[in-house]
Amino acid sequence: MDLVTVWFILVAVLWIGYFVLDGFDLGVGMLLPVIGRNDVNRRVMVNTIGPVWDGNEVWLLVAGGATFAAFPLWYATLFSGYYLALFLVLLALILRGVAFEYRGKKDDAKWRRNWDAAIVVGSALPALLFGVAFGNIVGGSQIASSTGNAADAGSINYIGSFFDLLNPFALVVGLMTLTVFATHGAIFLALKTSGEVREASRKVAVRVGVVAAVFAVVALLWAQTFSERVAVTLPLVLVAAVLWLGGLLATIRGRDGWAFILSAGTIGLAVAALFVGLFPNVMPSAIDPAYNLTVYNASSQSYTLTVMTIVAVIMTPLVLLYQGWTYWVFRKRITSSMIPS
Amino acid sequence: MNLDLARWQFAVTTVYHFLFVPLTLGTVWFVVGFQTAWVRTGNVKYLRLTKFFGKLFLINFAMGVVTGIVQEFQFGMNWSDYSKFVGDVFGAPLAMEGLLAFFLESTFLGLWIFGWDRLPKKLHLATIWAAAFGTLFSAFFILAANSWMQHPTGYEISETTGRAVLNDIGAVLFQNTSILAFTHTISASFLVAGAFVAAVGAWHMSKDRHLDVFRPAVKAGTWVILIAAVVVSITGDLDSKVMVEQQPMKMAAAEGLYETTANAPFSILSVGDLAGDSATRIIEVPGLLSFLATGSFDGTVQGINDLQAQYVQQYGPGDYSPYVPVTYWGFRMMIGLGMLAALYALWTLWRFRGGRNPKSTVFAAATAVITFLPLFGISAGWIFTEMGRQPWIVFGLQKTADGVSPTVGTASVLISFIGFTLVYAVLAFFEVRLMLKAIKAGPPEIASEDPFEDSQDDADKQLYFAY
After folding, report:
1. Per-residue pLDDT at A77
2. Domain spans of chain B?
3. B6 to chain A: closest CA residue
4. CA distance A210 to chain B (A)
5. What DSSP state is assigned to residue B272?
6. What's phi and psi for A264, nearest 5 deg?
7. Is A144 on the interface with B (CB under 8 A)?
8. Mean pLDDT, to the nearest integer, of A300-325?
9. Shortest alpha-carbon distance between residue B159 and chain A (Å)
């Protein structure tokens, strides 16, 4: 396998890691007022993700950094192109991160209410916009060469507007990620709490999970029309759908651990299907396929890719090991009686 | 227009981000030190110091983390032509920073914050050590990336694409520019944190509060300032020699020296227009600039005019000098505020000698003022370094004007610039309020000296720490 393919896979793995991990803590954040009917319950919720949300978010930063190193043209075109969408994501993540840290630093109901609002918006907005962004990547966006010379990949830029990003397909993908992450978050809460919060989370997981299934079926089947290899991606999507149903059934039966594994598996397979369907493109052009950014014309040279492969091969297992250990350390379910006043 | 807005946005978001970074880089080692002292001696006052400065550290760290996210993506957003041109080289240290540093600091800090009752004492101590090393790695990689912009090395320009291509990662990570930037920045961060820790402690003591707890903090803080000041001076001196070699224009702009001069003086103050050659030097030290630049008081320092002429020949027509008033004052603020902190440290050592405790209002007021001053010094140093490199984004390779995103609309840049600035301003308000509140609250009383042991016999016990 050539190095650019290896790095395409690695970038895909980083996004899968990000969506599986930050997916549930974004979900917990947006469900704060839905499941947490009083402050103690909201604190139970926030404390389930307290030790891990920051480490989860690093997957996004590393996905960004790895894209910069391995596919500079993808990084540059994507983030300058989807400018305002990314700006909103960044603002949301800033407010959310500060809110977790600051909400409890003052004993005042209004103070906490305001930071809780920041957590809800700061979680829901990225969950929606990441989907919209991926919808635009997969469905192709308004990119073209400014010189008209498609062979000069460096001259390829996004020339559409912010509103071009809000096309029907991308919005459906956005609604899918929003509802899937909400469900994933509720399933995580069911696994990590007991008592009132757990019961409420299981109900929400099933209800939102059904809505998510509808959006997901529409979005992922629609995505097949853009797929480079339907013979692979369609089966992946179907397996993902089965896992999702299994996850909801496991939730109904109170098998919280299985439910979480199945919803994580669904997210992993669905994202994998999108990336498999994309390859070898990284940003297809909706204007002319000649302007497609691909793993070949957007990538760094082999020396950089070799150096980064060595670093990634050594570091990624280590990271998985110590992040996994963190989840083991904080494996205990949290209840309202454990929250100090 | 886009260029100016993009530059202002980079300036605001980066300068703001970097207010939290040095304090984090230094303070984390004080927390490491206090907690290690507690684990080794069992003396509860070290645990109280750990908790107290740990809380201040976390309030600050949270801001550093969230404003750092913007940095990771801003290159792509506003500087896409730069990102395309250098990504093959510049992206590598950034990705390494993520893999080696960000994961380490965020994961182990999560363990440290929430792990008091979940991990045995020594293992819990190890988590803050790991997080502290994470911050150090992070600084190393990002400074290597920045050093490459100051002095590109280990690359070639591709014949097919015209873009920079990495050919020696060791040269990028370990060139002298990078090693000096790292040691200079880290020692300056220790100076910043030393001043912070010493001043917060001295302020409480001057109010006659928690004397026994804060005495070791004041002592540690002042000694760290003094040692850091020595290292900062040495690395700064070495750094300026390297700068003269690699970016002579920056050194000339640091003094506003227009004509090439032997035995060049260094002015401490001047009035008048520095952007032209009409400023009047008020206090001058003869030969000092030559000494800083060359190591000899008689050495010749190249002036802006000569360098400008030379660069026009080398790179074609254009203005190759940075905006001198910023470099001139940035250089002086950096050195001046650093020296002020060192003087404060000496004064504090004297006032606290032999177990004394100063209760003078002058000392308390000076202490309150000094707490954050070195922070502005290190900030000024970086503003000097970055502004002094202009008009280049990568020295000698790409001009800042050529790095900006070509297809991002002015409205987009304006919206994000205003948006980030407003949100950052609001957050600064809350951060300062929380900091002051936490400082005034003083070190917490300790309910349980071994929360891990306590949590073992009661499964549903309250969490020792919760958001």
Report:
1. 96
2. 2-159+167-247+322-466, 248-321
3. A80
4. 32
5. S
6. -65, -40
7. no
8. 95
9. 12
Residue in B67, B72, B405 nearest the CB of A64: B72
What is the per-residue pLDDT for B273? 74
Q: Which two tokens stand for residue B167?
A: 């050919």
CB nearest A338 (choices: B94, B430, B462): B462
Residue A51, helix vs strand vs coil: coil
CB B215 within 8 A of CB B205: yes
Read off the pLDDT of residues A262-299 as tens digits, 9 standing for 90 and up: 999 999 999 999 999 999 999 999 999 999 999 999 99
Which H or E run contains A331? none
- Residues in B closer than 8 angstroms to A72, CB to CB, are 83-84, 86-88, 91, 163
Nearest to B311, CA basis, from B259, B249, B403: B249
Q: How far apart are CA B72 and CA B13, in angstroms?
A: 11
Candidates B24, B79, B109, B407, partner chain A, best to mutate (most A CBs within 10 A):
B407
Task: List, in sequence order, every residue forming a beta bridge with A68; answer none if it has no partner.
Answer: none
Binary contact (A66, B87; C-beta < 8 A): no
Which tens digits make up the pLDDT trace of A133-186? 999 999 999 999 988 888 888 899 999 999 999 999 999 999 999 999 999 999
Exposed/middle/buried for B177, CB within 10 Å: 0-12, 13-18, 19+?
buried
Q: Residues in chain B, how many?
A: 467
Cβ <8 Å between B65 and A97: yes
Neighbours of B461 (CB within 10 A): 15
The single residue listed with the structure tokens 């080398």 is B314
Dist. CA B412–CA B427, nearest whole Å: 22
In whole angstroms, give the CA distance from residue B162 to residue B155.
Answer: 12
> Nearest C-alpha of chain B: how many angstroms from A160?
9
| Stronger pLDDT, B456 or A227, i.e. the higher one | A227
Positive or negative, the CA dihedral A305, A306, A311, A316 is positive
* Other beta carbons less than 10 A from residue B306's beta carbon: 16
CA B312 to chain centroid, in Å, comes to 33
Number of domains chain A contains: 1
- Closest partner CB to A66 (pick from B95, B427, B462): B95
Please state, in angstroms and rounded to a whole number, the distance separating the CA atoms of residues B218 and B229. Answer: 16
Q: What is the mean pLDDT of chain B?
A: 92
CA dist B404 and B398 (Å) reads 11
Residue B313 confidence (pLDDT): 94
Domain that holds residue A178: 3-338
**Model pTM above 0.90:** yes
User: Length of chain A, please?
Assistant: 341
pLDDT band per the 50, 70, 90 thresholds, residue B457:
low
**A340, closest residue in chain B (CA to CA):** B462
Q: How much is the pLDDT for B365?
A: 85
Identify all chain A residues contacting B115, using CB atoms and an 8 Å cutoff.
51, 329
Of residues A104, A301, A323, nearest to B88 (C-beta):
A301
What distance in Å separates residue A167's CA from the closest CA in chain B? 19
Residue among A79, A83, A312 whose CB faces B99 most closely? A312
Kindly state the tokens that stand for A110: 């209004």
B162, A154 contact by CB (below 8 A): yes
Task: Return the H-helix or E-strand segment holding B261.
Answer: strand B261-262
Phi, psi of B278 (to 5 degrees): -110, 10
